[in-house]
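debug: dumping io for the single-chain case to check the tokenizer round-trip. Nothing else runs in this session.
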Amino acid sequence: MAAVTEGQTGNAGRAAGGNRVLGAALKESGCSYASLALRVNELGRRQGADSHYDKASVTRWLQGQQPRGATPELIAAVLSERLGRAMSPADLGFHSDPQRPVASRALVYGEDVAETLHTLAELGCTDISRRGLLGTVPFVASALTHPQRDWLLWLLEQQEAPSSALPADGGPVEQVHAMIAVFDQMDNHFGGGGVRTSIVHYLSTEVVPMLQQRGLPSGQRSRLYAAAARLAAMAGWSSYDAGEYGLAQRYMTQGLRLCAEGRDRVLGGQILAGLSHLATSLGRPDEGVALARAGIVTAQGAGSPLGLMRLYAMSARGHAARGSSDDTAEALRLAERQLAASKGADQESPWVRYLDQHYLQAESALCFRDLGLARQAERTASESLGSGADRRRRQAISRSVLATAHLQQDRLDEAVGTATLALETLGAVHSERSVQALRDFRRRLEPRRTEPVVQEFERRSRGVLGAVA
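debug: decoded output
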């Protein structure tokens, strides 16, 4: 992606006093010009934008210049972090972009489900055509708080309601479930990048219009809402896997709202697990742990040990990213307990039947890698490779973690050999998460770049991983 450059002076820039609202927020936050520019660049790089803002850029913003693309949203995300409350670009004196309104609305867990359906349809259609979403749609960590709160408040109010949606019994619900099974299979085999657009198109142009029709029996409507929530979660997960992190957050947030209409606590917990994974991977492990805890509260008593296993694994991932080995060990212990409590996939919700021992081993290996526990990472990553060969994404990530474990034990030849196998797997998988896992390994090779085996790996990996930064 081309480097982000400064935009033309906008409406705020024509004001005689410049952007005083931004100046007041900056002063209140205690954030220096250099710190703001550095953090905006950092968030942009994580989300696919190459920007090089500095103190002079911030001065121009304060003078009234309107940054281009998603930069106002990135600025709002940084100041939201510093101020401890959600800030929008409009709150900071930036004029609204009429081409991108849905990107802001999709961060909201709305009270009116009709508005949620409208937002999802518009987001999906805009996403597919890339109108107004051609630039970066940023991940906004501060926008995670309100959906958690609103979901948990709904949960408290619905304690006497059924814990999960009923299975499909024919009609449109059965048809949607059949499509979900097809998308699941494609996602496992080819990665999110290969199926994302198909999921979004089906959700926004087929399933949402079904829910907008009048006359559906209430029981069927509830089941259809749960299926739509699952599709929205899949749209979010596949967006995440394709490196579209801001879109992932928005689809998952809207999916959580639909899940309330479907009264499916197991699925609600899984959507929170997906948001937890996203937050931790994007450098917000505190949010990742909080989201996992909200998911655990959601799924307790819903009759899904496998769902709880995943949520405890996500909690462990957050704790490991924070460097807390004791909390990580306890979360993994609880995950193991839930795995042992499951009576088998056929006794679980259809939303969690893919979860198994190999899944937990793969997540445990990532925890051990982040904590620098190379032997444990090697053991669990090796065990996770026993999963089905059709799960190529999991295989690629586990091989990358295994390669890192070898490297941490100074076994360079084994490390590069294992990473090469992961590289070969990536040839058939469109998964940015898998690519990032292997890039993480390649970065760890930096101190040994002069060695021939490393140079050869860098040469072979360039086509998939890009040039070394």
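debug: round-trip ok. The CA atoms of residues 121 and 205 lie 7 Å apart.
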